[in-house]
């Protein structure tokens, strides 16, 4: 798997700054380790190791705006450190999921509220073809009272064969779609290139962490019915 150390470094400093953490000691914080573990797909020990290398090779920034933190970090990185970090991250990544594992859902749908009608249409197509789908309204009773952060992480990271995301500016910005996407991306990293995230472009938007090289379909080219047919054909393979 190819790891982008620049992005890892920039995102870690961006996260620390957003949390109000600015000193070198903050790289050892539980919040930083939890963020790296979830975002990059490392276990806790791998995240701590990654942060220790970042701290050693980065000056302790004072209170600055996030853009300045990121720009200054990239200027200070050296090639040897980047190579070491890429190796450390690759070695710490967990093994790919076993093919024998049986998913609870063939597809999990991840979308922002403005795209709910589209998601419901796709859910109906999948159901009528005989496949299981996670669509939140169908499981309202099951989810009621549960810790949604834990439940949704498991669904989008472990319990589905594929995850369809509906890309739009709202999907990039809203809280729960961000949480679902981060869990799906962690699964994609652990799968080391195996197909998992299936993007549907509703409106153009840059999705943090999702490579532009990942194949996607757009509603400007296909109807939701066409996309449903494509998805059913993939599920039948």
Q: Name the strands of the widest sheet in spatial order.
A: 2-1-3-4-5
- Rg calculated over all Cα atoms: 19 Å
Shape: globular
Mean pLDDT: 77
What ranges have pLDDT less than 50 throughout 5 or more consecutive residues? 59-66, 76-80, 95-101
Q: Count of helices?
A: 11
Share of β-strand residues: 5-15%
Question: Structural class of the secondary structure composition?
Answer: alpha/beta
Main sheet attributes: strand count, strand direction, barrel closure: 5 strands, parallel
End-to-end span in angstroms? 25 Å
**How much helicity do the residues have?**
40-55%
Tell me about this structure.
The chain is an alpha/beta fold. The chain has 2 domains: 5-92; 105-235, Toll/interleukin-1 receptor homology (TIR) domain (Rossmann fold, 3-Layer(aba) Sandwich). The chain has helices at residues 5-18, 30-40, 44-57, 66-76, 79-92, 116-128, 140-143, 148-157, 169-173, 175-190, 224-235; strands spanning 105-110, 133-134, 160-167, 197-201, 217-218. Strands 2-1-3-4-5 form a 5-stranded parallel beta sheet, sandwiched between helices. Helix 1 runs antiparallel to helix 4 (66-76). The two termini are 25 Å apart.
């Amino acid at each position: 798997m190819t790891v982008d150390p620049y992005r890892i470094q920039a995102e870690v400093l961006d996260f620390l700054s957003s949390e109000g953490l600015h000193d070198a000691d903050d790289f050892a914080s539980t919040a930083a380790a939890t963020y790296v573990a979830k975002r990059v797909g490392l276990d806790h020990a791998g995240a701590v190791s990654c942060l220790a290398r970042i701290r050693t090779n980065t000056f302790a920034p004072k209170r600055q705006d996030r853009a300045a933190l990121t720009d200054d970090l990239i200027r200070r990185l050296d090639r040897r450190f980047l190579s070491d970090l890429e190796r450390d991250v690759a070695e710490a990544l967990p093994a790919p999921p076993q093919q024998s594992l049986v998913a609870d859902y063939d597809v999990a749908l991840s979308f922002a509220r403005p795209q709910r009608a589209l998601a419901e249409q796709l859910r109906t197509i999948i159901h009528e073809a005989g496949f299981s789908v996670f669509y939140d309204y169908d499981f309202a009773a099951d989810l009621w009272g549960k810790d949604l952060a834990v439940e949704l992480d498991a669904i989008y990271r472990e319990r589905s064969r594929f995850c369809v995301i509906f890309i739009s500016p709202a999907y990039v910005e809203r809280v729960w779609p961000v949480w679902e996407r981060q869990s799906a991306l962690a699964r994609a990293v652990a799968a080391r290139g195996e197909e998992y995230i299936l993007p549907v472009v509703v409106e153009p938007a840059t999705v943090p962490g999702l490579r532009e090289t990942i194949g996607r379909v757009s509603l400007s080219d296909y109807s939701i019915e066409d996309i449903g047919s494509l998805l059913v054909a993939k599920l039948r393979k």
